[in-house]
Amino acid sequence: MGMTMTQKILAAHAGLDSVQAGQLILAELDLVLGNDITSPVAIKEFAKLNKSEVFDKDKVTMVMDHFAPNKDIKAAEQCKMCRDFCGEHNVTHFYDVGKMGIEHALLPEKGLVSAGFCVIGADSHTCTYGALGAFSTGVGSTDMACGMAVGKAWFKVPSAIKFNLTGKLRKYVSGKDVILHIIGMIGVDGALYRSMEFTGEGLSSLSMADRLCIANMAIEAGAKNGIFEVDDITLDYIREHGGAEPVIYKADDDAEYDEVINIDLSAVEPTVAFPHLPENARTFDQIGDIKIDQVVIGSCTNGRLEDLQAAAEIMKGRKCAENVRVIVIPATQQIYLDAMEQGLLKIFIESGAVVSTPTCGPCLGGYMGILAAGERAVTTTNRNFVGRMGHVESEVYLASPEVAAASALTGKITSPLEVMES
Amino acid sequence: MKYTGNAIKYGDNVDTDVIIPARYLNTSDHAELASHCMEDIDKTFVNRVKSGDIMAAGQNFGCGSSREHAPIAIKASGISLVIAKSFARIFYRNAINIGLAIVECPEAAEGISEGDVVEADLDNGIIRNITTGKEYTTAPFPEFIQKIIANGGLMDSIAKGVIE
Question: Cα separations (Å) of A394 from A272, A410, B98?
Answer without folding.
Answer: 16, 20, 32
